[in-house]
Amino acid sequence: MKFSASALLFLCSLQSAGAFSPTPVNKRTTPLYSSVLEEVATDVATDDKPKQKPLTRFDRLKQLYKGQKFTTTDESVDFSYDDFAKAVDETEYEFERHSVVEGVAVEYIGKGCLVDIGAKASAFLPEQEAGLMMEERELTDVVPLDTPLQFQIISDEDENGQLLVSIKRLEYKRAWDKVTAMAEADEVLEAEVVAVNRGGAICLVEGLRAFLPGSHLTGQLPDENIIGQTLPLKFLEVKQETNKLVVSNRKAVVEQQMADLSRGDVVKGLVKALKPYGAFVEVGGMSGLLHISQISHDRIEDLEAVLQPGMQIKCMIIDHDKLNGRIALATKTLEYEPGAILKDPESVFEKAEETAAKYLEKMELEKRAREAAARDIVLGLGDSLDGLGLDDDSKPEGDDSSDPLQDVSDSLDSLLS
Q1: What pLDDT is stored for residue 210 in this prediction?
Q2: Other Cβ atoms within 10 Å of 324 Cβ, number
């Protein structure tokens, strides 16, 4: 409700004349007078000048702020604006997924750490992406703070502009590259057994889990006792596409042992198992077959009466297959008399080297006798064929093909050698 100037003058005159007595005529006079004056005062203030709100602390600081101050200097710098623009143009910023960037870890947070890679926000490295086999490693040891490292971006930016990075992906690729190169070079490597299962054992090769079949484990069974052992291995199958890595302990051991073994060598062995056709004997980490026909010159009725699993014996290598790692063994060649292995095996093993030397000498004499007999046969054939060849005058000069026994002699020499 608004009043004109004349009405305001009238009200003021009434007040000065005592029209509005401080003693109220009735109970409603005073409240009415107070409300009217307050409304009049509010309307007057609104019409003439609006009321101002008190300034806040931020408003006062804003009024006092005069802008950023720059200090000028007469000193010149070698880096110009053109140089800066050129440097910006030459700098590549690649923060796309799968890109490899350099960064430094700045803070451990939660199950990972923040990594400064030069992006608008720090990237996050989850603990499981910090490296291979992180269940056995500490994040602080793998990713130290303020140390430049290579990271691979494994995600797009989220709503906060943050990326996920990984070291594990880079280590995984490097491990496969190294394993592939080792397999191509057919190298022997050392690896630790970390677990066993029904089919064999699991080994760690350059941080990758490799399967060792039980049939390719030499001299042991794939049980809990081999966990923690370091074994020599060779690769059987390497396929990165299917994440398949298979290794063999037998192949590595056989190649190492076979390089020093040859036919006629006397070796020590441990009887591992008995079969109806013979015994399996472990020799230098390899499994060799001692056939029942090669145990003694006498007939064997009960194999268990002669050999027992766990028994230490000496035997002679009579054949070997280096490619497949198989060796054939014999003890009858160590008998100083037929049936000695059945009567007194201890004495046979004590005299094994001496008996083997005599046996090899005997074999060498028999071989030479066979060679001499074969040559006598060839020479006898030559005498009976005299005159069947060409005359000396009719033979072409330098032609040795006129000898009808030349090819036979060459073939015989190759067989005897």
Answers
A1: 93
A2: 9
pLDDT in tens, 90-122: 665 567 888 888 899 999 988 899 999 888 788
Phi, psi dihedrals of residue 3, rounded to the nearest 5°: -120, 145
Domain with CATH 2.40.50.140 in the chain: 102-166, 172-254, 262-358
Q: How confident is the model at residue 32 (pLDDT cuts 50, 70, 90)?
A: very low
* CA–CA dist 66, 368 (Å, integer): 114
- CA distances to 20, 37, 40, 191 from 27, rounded to whole Å, are 13, 17, 22, 105
Residue 263 · residue 317 · CB < 8 Å? yes
- Name the CA dihedral angle for 138, 144, 148, 153, rounded to a multiple of 10 degrees: 40
Q: Classify the C-alpha dihedral 35-36-41-45 as positive or negative.
A: positive
Helix (H) or strand (E) segment spanning residue 292: none
Token code pair at residue 243: 């994440």
| Chain position carrying tokens 């880079």 | 170
For the chain, how far is it from start to end, CA to CA, in angstroms?
Answer: 135
pTM of the model: 0.48
Tell me the per-residue pLDDT of 238-254, one tens digit each, with 9 for 90 and over: 998 888 999 998 888 77
What is the maximum span of the chain, computed from C-alpha positions, in angstroms? 179
> Residues 52-80: what's their mean pLDDT?
73
Q: Tell me what pLDDT residue 72 has.
A: 66
Contact 387, 394 (CB under 8 A): no
Q: How far apart are CA 169 and CA 121, in angstroms?
A: 22
What pLDDT sits at residue 5? 52
CA distance 97 to 158: 12
Distance, in Å, from the CA atom of 400 to the CA atom of 406, rounded to the nearest integer, reads 8
CATH for 172-254 (1.10.340.30, 1.10.260.40, 3.10.20.30, 2.40.50.140):
2.40.50.140
The pLDDT-based confidence of 217 (bands split at 50, 70, 90) is: confident
DSSP summary character for residue 56: P
Instruction: Tell me the CATH number for domain 262-358.
Output: 2.40.50.140
CATH superfamily, domain at 102-166? Nucleic acid-binding proteins (2.40.50.140)
DSSP secondary structure code for residue 37 in this structure: H
